[in-house]
Amino acid sequence: MIALVQMAAEKQNPLLPPIPELVIGLIAFAIVFFFLWKKLLPNINKVLEQRREAIEGGIEQADAAKEEAAEVLKQYKDQLAEARHEAARMRSEAQEQGATLIAEMRAEGQRQREEIVQAGHAQIVADRKQAAQALRQDVGKLATDLAGKLVGESLEDHARQSRTIDRFLEDLEEKAEAAR
Q1: How far apart are the first and last CA of the chain?
Q2: Packing angle between helix 41-151 and helix 158-179, nearest 10 degrees?
């Protein structure tokens, strides 16, 4: 250092500052460094530590939120699968109920058709009996009138008329059965 001072005294180098300025600059630098090191550096470290903790806390919160979202997604998918299964089961039940209802309606329709057919047959039988009765009466009346004209006497007596009609109709029925 002495060599530098001597060189500085002999020649003034424009790149080297004068020694008193260099000493004052070093003292000022030391004061500023000491102040920064004691006051400002702990505050900066404290703020950086708070930021690091906030970032790590945010990352932990994000991880927790991600895990929670994954759990919610899994529950949603499970519920969706369960809902689809339930819908398929309900569709199947509806189809079964529809098939049962159709079978019941067919059976009911068949039963009603049978009732209608039976009622029709009963009506036909009743109509046939009624027509046969009416025909019997008409034929009996005509036969009585004809027999009365042939015999030459009146067959107005009811008992005699009934016997004559019954005998005449029995003869017709026997002839009809023989013709078959």
Answers
A1: 162
A2: 110
Query: pLDDT confidence of 2, banded at 50, 70, 90?
Result: low
- Do 17 and 25 form a contact (C-beta atoms < 8 A)? yes
From the centroid of its chain, how far is CA 165? 77
Segments in the chain forming alpha helices (H): 2-10, 19-35, 41-151, 158-179
Q: Which of 116, 131, 165 is nearest to 145 (CA)?
A: 165
DSSP class of residue 157 equals -
pLDDT at 137: 77
Q: What is the pTM assigned to this prediction?
A: 0.38
Tokens of 19: 């020694």
Say if residue 165 is exposed, middle or buried (CB neighbours under 10 Å; 0-12, 13-18, 19+). Answer: buried
pLDDT tens readout for residues 20-30: 988 999 999 99
The CA R_g of the chain, rounded to the nearest whole Å, is 65
CA distance 27 to 7: 23
